[in-house]
Design goal:
By secondary structure, the protein is of the alpha/beta class. The chain folds into 2 domains: about 180 residues, FAD/NAD(P)-binding domain, CATH 3.50.50; about 150 residues, D-Amino Acid Oxidase, Chain A, domain 2, CATH 3.30.9. It has 9 helices and 18 strands. Strands 1, 2, 8, 9, 10, 11, 17 and 18 form an 8-stranded mixed sheet that branches. Strands 5-6-4-13-14-15-12-16 form an 8-stranded mixed sheet, sandwiched between helices. A hairpin with a 5-residue loop joins strand 14 and strand 15. Helix 1 crosses helix 9. About 45% of the residues are buried. One of its GO terms (molecular function) is oxidoreductase activity. InterPro entries: FAD-dep_OxRdtase, FAD/NAD-bd_sf. Keywords: Oxidoreductase. This is Glycerol-3-phosphate dehydrogenase.
């Protein structure tokens, strides 16, 4: 028998956005929930996100409302209710970078055609912004393209994590950085064991570890579900002279295809200098490229899509991140949040930061089917509290 035993109603493994959202919801419902993390909170996918609360707009740029676009369409309204303090979790103190993400097309005919068909498919979520109402980079007389406003806010993910951590800090714990042994009885998991020193017991177990779920599934000897990783090589740049920083921009740039050429979000580093974070097609096609070659491509791309703006001298770096998801045919992008239940074990991937509330709904429904009980547990101070990871903007340039 282990020397130290910790007990809970439910154990959630993985303190990214999915685990934190679920932990808040279950704790609010009166369950004794423990959220476990063997690294730092948000260290992987979550703090590599651009903070966009997608409403499906970028999935309908071909003029067709796909399943993915329709599934995620209700998420911005749900998040906004929380940001206003009237939703299921009070996020009113989260730093919102912008209430509306933008989308712009260049003067090319193909780019204008894509924006035209997208605007028809997304009439209620995509509004043309007339010249008189444009601001920032797009108020410049040199900008000759078309500009749209999307009903999609962009959040400071670091501040979002702090708000989700605060109410339940004492039950977000740092576990040893080792794969646990799973203790089973009658086909159900009863505990996670770390060596001979620690055992964590619960009625139910939920895996929200993102990419780390792959190793946990191996340790559980589960062949289903399988996980896929869709990689990105993101780019970051900032002005070398912080007295002449980049302007803030939160926008998709449209080309001739059905995906944005680039998605740019802006993030202040700890000195206040603005970092541009580039995703979209350039990050997908940049996988496996030499970073210097990809940076050279990005320099050319910025001049093509922002021809009216004179860029300051920039410092560049790249950042590799894997999007961890349930395996799909042809490694396609999943359409919705995913939960697979195996008796009292629930394997969960939100597939998008914006879908975390939907994932929590699905897990709570699965736990209700299992008839999880609310029971009393003593305060247990065996493990240290998990700590928040450093923002990407403050560490990416230090490679």
């Amino acid at each position: 028998m282990s020397q130290n035993i910790i007990t809970a109603d439910v154990v959630i493994v993985g303190a990214g956005i999915a685990g934190l959202w679920l932990h808040n919801r279950l704790s609010q419902l009166g369950y004794h929930s423990l959220l476990l993390e063997n690294q730092k909170i948000g260290h992987a996918q979550t703090l590599s996100a651009q903070g966009i609360i997608h409403g499906g707009s970028k999935y309908a740029l071909n003029g067709i409302l796909s399943n993915a676009a329709q599934t995620i369409s209700g998420m911005p309204a749900r998040w906004k209710a929380c940001l206003q303090g009237s939703g299921e979790i009070d996020l009113s103190s989260v730093n919102v970078f912008t209430e509306h993400q933008l989308l712009w097309s260049t003067q090319s005919l193909s780019s204008k055609m894509v924006s035209f068909f997208a605007s028809k498919a997304l009439q209620s979520r995509m509004q043309n912004i007339p010249k008189s109402e444009r601001s920032g980079l797009f108020a410049d007389e040199g900008f000759k393209g078309t500009l749209y406003q999307l009903d999609e806010p962009v959040l400071d993910v670091g501040s979002l994590l702090k708000v989700l951590i605060k109410p339940y800090t004492a039950t977000i714990l740092k576990t040893p950085d080792s794969t646990p042994e799973w203790i089973k009885q009658d086909g159900q998991i009863t505990a996670m064991r770390f060596g001979y020193e620690l055992e964590i017991q619960a009625q139910q177990f939920v895996l929200t570890s993102g990419e780390g779920t792959g190793e946990l599934l191996k340790s559980l000897q589960l062949s289903r579900p399988k996980m896929q990783k869709r990689p990105l090589q993101m780019l970051l740049c900032k002005a070398k002279d912080s007295a002449n920083p980049l302007p803030q921009i939160y926008a998709h740039s449209l080309g001739s295809g059905s995906k944005p050429i680039a998605t740019i979000s802006s993030h202040p580093d700890k000195t206040g200098n603005i970092v541009w974070y580039l995703g979209g097609n350039i990050a997908e096609e940049g996988v496996g490229k030499d970073p210097d070659s990809l940076i050279a491509d990005a320099r050319v791309l910025l001049k093509q899509i922002l021809p009216w703006f004179t860029l300051p001298e920039l410092e560049w770096t790249t950042h590799n991140v894997n999007r961890a998801e349930p395996k799909q045919s042809g490694f396609a992008r999943p359409d919705s949040a995913y939960v697979s239940s195996h008796k009292n074990l629930h394997i969960a991937w939100p597939t998008k930061l914006a879908l975390s509330p939907d994932l929590a709904d699905k897990v709570i429904e699965a736990l209700a089917i299992q008839n999880m009980q609310k029971t009393a547990h003593p305060e247990q101070h065996i493990l240290p509290l998990a700590q928040l990871a450093e923002p990407l903007w403050d560490r990416a340039f230090n490679k």
